[in-house]
Amino acid sequence: MDILILKKLFPNLEEGLYKELLAHGTLKEVKAGETLLKVGQTIRSTMLIIDGLVKLYREDDEGNEFFIYHLNAGQACSLSMICATRHETSEILAKALTDATVLAIPLEYMEQWMSKYKSWYQFVISSYRKRFEELLKTIDAIAFTSMDERLEYYLKQQVVQLGNNLKNTHQEIANDLNSSREVISRLLKKMETKGWVVIHRNAIEWIKKD
């Protein structure tokens, strides 16, 4: 991988750090739908997203899913950073929504760079803060908004990530929002009546103008 790609995706790092990222990181290509991180898996590295879109979510004992947030190119999995620094196992799942490329950084280097490179320390702290802010938004949505509002917020997030024509099935949306397919289908039909979406056979088209 070219160092210029790293500099574009992860700006403001020291020159020596870019070289170490290339020297010690392992570039991995993953297909859409492939699992990158499982519950109970020992974290031995952290992930930097080079290309593609990765979904992080939780799953209960019955297999029900709950969406947490997305990771795009130029972002890092801060939860894997937390687990890695403490030698813990993962309590989340990560799945590639599109074909993706990730740079896996072994634990020992991540710990060294925290003290060796000020820019890495700042990058890790910034990643923690951004993900924490996203978690707060998710908690607020659950605690203080109706399912109608949660669905609207969710669809807007998906549109930002994937464009106006969403391939999500009603069941996938229900899984992400910890709801039922019947409820989601009813609310989507209500949105369609209002002129917010157009429901196609294999896609949902977002047309609401804010």
Fold and architecture overview:
With 210 residues, this protein is α+β, with helices and mostly antiparallel strands. Helices cover 47% and strands 22% of the residues. It contains 8 helices and 10 strands. A 4-stranded antiparallel β-sheet has the order 2-6-4-5, covered by helices on one side. A hairpin with a 4-residue loop joins β9 and β10 (204-206). The radius of gyration is 19 Å and the shape is elongated. The mean pLDDT is 88.
How would the blueprint of this fold be written?
Blueprint lengths: L2 H7 L5 H10 L1 E5 L4 E3 L7 E7 L2 E6 L5 E7 L6 H8 L7 E4 L3 E7 H10 L1 H27 L2 H16 L2 E2 L3 H7 L4 H14 L2 E3 L4 E3 L4
Antiparallel strand pairs: 1-7, 2-6, 3-7, 4-5, 4-6, 8-10, 9-10
Helix pairs in contact: 4-5, 7-8
Keywords:
alpha+beta; Jelly Rolls; elongated; three-stranded antiparallel β-sheet; 22% strand; single chain
What is the rounded distance between the termini? 40 Å
Helical proportion, percent range: 40-55%
Mean pLDDT: 88
Annotated CATH topology of the largest domain: Jelly Rolls
Q: How many strands, which pairing sense, and closed or not: the largest β-sheet?
A: 4 strands, antiparallel
- Counted beta strands: 10
Radius of gyration: 19 Å
- CATH class value of the largest domain: Mainly Beta
| SSE class | alpha+beta
Whole-number count of domains: 2
CATH superfamily of the largest domain: Jelly Rolls
Ranges with pLDDT <50 over ≥5 residues?
A: none
Summarize the structure in short:
It is built from 8 helices and 10 strands. The protein is of the alpha+beta class and 210 residues long.
